Amino acid sequence: YYFKAKLDYVQEPISIKGFEGMWKLLLEREANMGELLVVPYGGKMKEISETALPFPHRAGNLYKIQQLAYWEESGAVASERSISWSRKLHDYMTPYVSKSPRASYMNYRDLDLGVNNYNGGDGKTTTSYAQASVWGLKYFKNNFKRLVQIKTKVDPTNFFRNEQSIPSLYSKSSSKNN
Prior knowledge:
GO molecular function: flavin adenine dinucleotide binding; oxidoreductase activity
Domain Berberine/berberine-like: 104-167
Mean pLDDT: 90
Protein name: Berberine/berberine-like domain-containing protein
Keywords: FAD, Flavoprotein
Organism: Erythranthe guttata (Yellow monkey flower)
Low-confidence stretches: 171-178
Structural class: alpha+beta
Strand content: 5-15%
């Protein structure tokens, strides 16, 4: 199987009409094997400060809703069909989910939010703080700036990196754009 995942946080109850629209999208042929996973939030979790840990999405969320598209068929056409459907569902969800920024969860990495720039074959990134904050603020909210400062101290050469890793401000690989 192949899959595409997106995630949103829901802070206000979604109307019946909103859920009916989601259901309609799940029944579309392009959905193939579309799925929504709803994970409730609250309880003890909301008592932990937003800044106590890197994960800030504790208080103020009723639940997170993961939108998944699965497909078996290989090839660009099948991938594009399912990924387009995933983006369509995500767009539909906009009025029902968190805003300013529209939050997401790092462990369900959404590369549609942006990716690091890689500098040729050496694997070094040339991603600026501003560019990384597009996804960083969605994943970490105001903790992102602090995480960049820590990353800069602990990993100044940006050795530990991935498509959406936190940049190091002073590394040789990222200082060009800071």
